[in-house]
Every structure is written in C-alpha cells, then in structure tokens.
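Bump. Still looking for Homoserine O-succinyltransferase structure tokens.
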Amino acid sequence: MSSVGIVTPQSLHFSEPLPLSSGASLADYTLVYETYGTLNADRSNAVLICHALNASHHVAGMYEGVDGSKNVGWWDNMVGPGKPLDTDRFFVIGVNNLGSCFGSTGPMHPNPATGKPYGADFPVVTVEDWVHSQARLADALGIRQFAAVMGGSLGGMQALSWSMIFPERLRHCIVIASTAKLSAQNIAFNDVARQSILTDPDFHGGDFYAHGVVPKRGLRVARMIGHITYLSDDSMAEKFGRELRNGGYQFGFGIDFEIESYLRYQGDKFSEYFDANTYLLITKALDYFDPAKDYGDDLTKALHNTQAQFLLVSFTTDWRFSPERSREIVQALVQNKRKVSYAEIDAPHGHDAFLLEDKRYMNTVRAYYDKVWQEIDRRHA
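Sorry for the wait, here they are.
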C-alpha cells in the first residue's frame, strides 16, 4: 500500500449567504478542501470525509516542508491506494469546516463588516451548518450524490446528520466512534476545557489577535483535558504506568511522572497551532448536536427519513463515545428497517482507536468499501 503522495489544498469561495442554526448567517466565506483519486464519468464514486475536532481537510497524503519534513494526513492509514478507502477506486474529498483555523473561514479571518478578524464575533456554528456548507461544496463540484459520507467522532456526527438532512444525497453512511448526542459528562469536560481558555488573561474576550498574544495557557490545559478523555486507562497504564522521569519524587509541583510530561508536551504542541476561538466553537458544536431533540428525544423518529445503508464501528475501551452510544443508533436504524452493519472492536486504545492501525477495524472498513465498490461496478455493467 502506498500514499497518495504530495497533495495540494484547494479552496472555493461562496458569496451566497449561508443561514445558520443560530439565526445568524455567513456571507463571503471560503471552504478549503483536498481531493484524492479520480472522479468517474457519472460521478458515482465520490466519498466525503468529515473531520473531528482538531483535524482538517488534510485527510491523506503529505505536504513537503521546506526542511524536507512530511506533514502526513490525519487519516493516511485509512485513505490511499490499496488502503481500506481505496483511492484507485474512489474519489475522496476532505473538507475543512467553517470556524476552523486551517483555511476555511473562521475567527482568524477578516469580518467583511469591520475589516478586522472576526474573533469572538464569529457566529456559533453547528454540525448541521457544516453539513449545509459541505452540500454547497458538493454542488460546486457537480456531485449530486455521494457513494458514502464517512467520519469518526465529531466527523461521525456530521455523517449521521448528512443521512438525515440530505437522505437522497448519500448511498452509504459510515459512522465511527461517535454518538447521537453527548452525555452530561462529555459536556462537562468540554465546558472545563472552554473555561480554561475563557479565563486565560491572554484571551482578551476572544480578541487576542489585536493584542498580539495567544492564550497558550488555556489552550494547553484544554488539550490536556481532552487528551485524557481520548485515551483509555489501559493504554495510559501500558504507555506510562507510574514511571518517574528522574527516578524519584522531586517533592515539588513540577513534572514527576512520565504521564505528566506527555500531557504537557501535547498541550504545548497544541497551543502552537490551534486557535482558541476555534476550540470554543467546535466544542460547542459537539455539545449542541442532538437530532432527536426536535422529535421528543426519540432517535427512531429522528432517523425515520434516512435512506442510506449504514456501517457503525465502536471500540470497547472508548469511554468518551462508548459502544452503548453506537448501539443506540443501530437500534434506531433497525427499527426504521434500514440496512445496518455494526462492528464493536475490542481494542485497548480508547477513543483514539479510530485513528490507529487495528487489523480488525481496518478490515471491517475495507470489506464495507468493497461492497460499495461492487454496487458501483454493477451500475456500470
């Protein structure tokens, strides 16, 4: 198996205002995206990849740095020639969501009304808003129906939302390590992370750009909190246990344990590249996602108009989006007589398992895309 190689982001500008769930709207916005593979003549082999919290349009392949370094796509083990989502067969699109800090219009970009960065004035966006913007991108690319829409975690929420908002525009929906709504505990973790940013003196109410500073302390703590929830207790124990950095206790409040060093490293790295306002926006979108809310909290009713076939995958040690949450979606789909495949993978890596190499997981996705490809083949027979 090989990589798709060196890739180049593309962008599309949209001047038609995009109405948002909040009642606000966005005009003059840009979406950044990447594509891999070749779109076939009848445009039936397109697959949309929706990204999670700190990811982007850079799904596969690599950017080559001036120093020779390689910036590899966040799902490069999943997408590429001969990989589970085979780009020798499928035309794959990765799109960066509105409000992000990786190219699509977000808080760091100029507000047309003021000429200054949006900052805290960037409107709150929802999963549904992202799906509507992605549909506009698909329209611009001439894709009326996707062979599949796929995502993990927050990306899985978007894939599920696609199946409800545009049921006729996707034939398969692939939802990995996700949920139909956050638990109270998940919302609590997100709020603690947001508070760490909001109370950082360098945040300046979201307008820190004008002050030439970055709320790094808040971002570090937010990332540390998030990272703890992405790992399982078993994986933490296996990687770090109670190992001490210097062989003994230092009897202070610095770094004693290897796990502390690891979390500080992850927090420092995150604070160098991620935007604080984007973090606030994306975690709120996570909190707000609850399609059953408008159906009396009945998920079966919420999924009634879906038409796609579904694959759901969960991981036994994922306590952030537990298998129980995926089984709730499966049950609601079965009650609607949808075709559903479900895999519950016994993996030790926690929520991060959806990004990692696990043969059972990868083979499950590969087998499903083999089926999708056979359907496309039959259409052309």
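The chain is about 35% helix and 15% strand.

Edit: fixed formatting.
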